[in-house]
Amino acid sequence: MPSRVEFREDRCKGCLLCTEVCPTGIIQQSSRFNQKGYKVVEITAEMMSECKGCAFCAMMCPDFVINVFKSESEKGGAA
Amino acid sequence: MSQPDRIFIKGNEAIARGALAAGAKCFFGYPITPQNDIPEFMSQAIVDAGGQFVQAESEVAAANMLLGAAACGIRSLTSSSSPGISLKQEALSYMAGSEVPGVIVNVSRGGPGLGDIGPSQADYFQSVKGGGHGDYKLLVLAPGTVQEAYDLTIKAFDLAFKYRNPVMILADAIIGQMKEPVVPWTPEHRDPNEGRTWGLVGAKDRAPRLVKSLFLEDGALAGQNLKLQAKYKRMQSEVDQELFLTDDAELIVVAFGSIGRIVKSTVRKLRAQGKKVGLVRPITLFPFPADVLLGLAKQGKRFITIEHNMGQMVEDVRLAIRTVADSDFYAQLPGTLPTPDDFEEPILKALEG
Amino acid sequence: MTQELRVTNYPQVLTDRPTHYCPGCHHGTAHRLVAEALTDLGLVENTILVGSIGCSVFIYNYLSLDAIESPHGRAPAVATGIKRARPDKIVFTYQGDGDLASIGMAEIMHCANRGENITTIFVNNTVYGMTGGQMAPTTLVGQKTTTSPSGRSQEDTGSAIRMTEIIASLGGVAYAERVAVNTIKNIKKAQKAVRKAFEYQVKGLGFSFVEVLATCPTNWHMTPLAANKRIETEMIPYFPLGTYKDVLAKEEK
Prior knowledge:
The structure holds 3 protein chains of 3 kinds.
Chain A: E1 3-7, H1 17-21, E2 28-33, E3 39-42, H2 45-48, H3 56-60, E4 66-71, H4 72-75
Antiparallel strand pairs in A: 1-4, 2-3
Chain B: E1 7-10, H1 11-21, E2 26-29, H2 37-48, E3 52-55, H3 59-71, E4 76-80, H4 82-97, E5 102-108, H5 124-128, E6 139-141, H6 146-163, E7 166-172, H7 173-177, E8 179-182, E9 210-211, H8 220-234, E10 241-244, E11 251-254, H9 257-272, E12 277-282, E13 284-286, H10 290-298, E14 302-307, H11 313-321, E15 327-331, H12 344-352
Parallel strand pairs in B: 2-3, 2-4, 4-5, 5-7, 6-7, 11-12, 11-14, 14-15
Antiparallel strand pairs in B: 1-8, 6-13, 10-12
Chain C: E1 4-6, H1 27-40, E2 47-51, E3 66-69, H2 75-85, E4 90-96, H3 97-103, H4 105-114, E5 119-124, E6 127-128, E7 134-135, H5 154-157, H6 163-168, E8 173-180, H7 184-202, E9 207-213, H8 217-220, H9 224-238, E10 242-246, H10 247-252
Parallel strand pairs in C: 2-3, 2-4, 4-5, 5-9, 8-9
Antiparallel strand pairs in C: 6-7, 8-10
């Protein structure tokens, strides 16, 4: 798995701003509601492999919901 | 720096010099008569003393600058006169609510509205009863001489930091504009760590500090108000007054500030005629010397309150002695300049009444 | 062997606490920009935050800084007092458009004009948010609010005030920039602007000002996505982004 995104679902307010800035368009609204009643976003397991680790979603999120992880071997590109 | 034994200065300058002697480092002001000597003096003197002078864009801004500087634990003051003090009430309420110490000088003038630029004591209510919104108290000190203006300004800073509360110097155009000899002095002991435990300096190696007056959580505002009231109760120990020939007096004149001092001359004159009159001059208006007045009332003495307004402190005098006595009232009308002779007739009338 | 690295790195000064802001509100983003700038420049422990009245009144819950709450509109005066009392501290105000451009107009103008060496982060969302979406001095002509239900009328109420342009015209101002946080490109520019504003304060150059165009989806009665689009389609055309004053850029020319 080259890159991975974690959503702190309890913090998500379902604004969907992250969905529009994702260059691969893999973030979508889930069918789940969090405790506050917001319909949270998700990247499904099969979509996650397309994540490029750009972290635009995290940069856009006003609620610090998102953490993005990259594996080190990916960092060097071709290496 | 060596100090001359005696200097001959205006009350306004005495207040400014007193603030410098107390270690004030920031002055924020705005022009208004009859206090202009204070910012004019400070614009040079506080800078020379290594401090800061700002002529603010408004009284509102000046008072809020005081809020900011004082929240850092730095001795600071603002000065103004009645209409300007009205504008400062917003910040005073915030300072009281968030427990920030600072000194506010009111060289009061006649009102209501633009009134005049002459002396008046019509800011008693504004100073003593809150003035701004919410349940709060300022410590209020009322000098009766130029020397006392100097001394009380020094005391004001000590009290402000002792209680973390705004302190008002309530003078008037008479005290502010009158020249008298003053013996300047500098207090010897000052806590070098004053304000260090609560002032804003940046959250280094500790949790952040927050200076605020907003308390939204359940019960929090009630708690803050109870805490403030307990503090105001503790302040009662600071009560101070001048008693002049009260022991054998049949009639007590209650008067504060400049009027208290003028009445003192009247009392002297009447004593020379064998009239048994005395004077109580409250020096602290909050806390008010209610117990002293009640004690005198219990001795069977009668009272007249004389003020340079239409009747404000008299309410507190009556409240203090209400269980045993009452007080007459004489209004020195705003826009007039009284002499000791002006008070003879009303005092004699009360004595004979 | 591959080791996983975290790309996102939220500054410690940003408290790990859910904000009270509505979904899609840009305040959180603006808070983060301030947190990042203070952290990158190593200023956190030396900074005093001056909050204001409006939705961001609770900013002290989200930024772990010594802070004071100022009366409505008075933050620049309070900040002046703080900076004069503690000239070695970094001092900034965080104000909304009702606070800064209406009730606090005198304070911000004179603070800027005196060249107080402080920074102001001005979040402009064209409405009074906390009190229920009333018309602000920055409300666009035609925009419906709870006190301009038929849309702001230019004849009766004038037009939206462009603060950055006004601030840039004042003598004591070192830096004035308008940014937005509606796109990644704009957020990156905003990051640089906020950082620069604090850098200028560190250098003692005078007053620095960053206006952040922001959404208020709730009071605009829009979805967060539609509100975010409005920044591009309605706000930026009227409030153009860019640098309006930069004393160092001038010197370089």
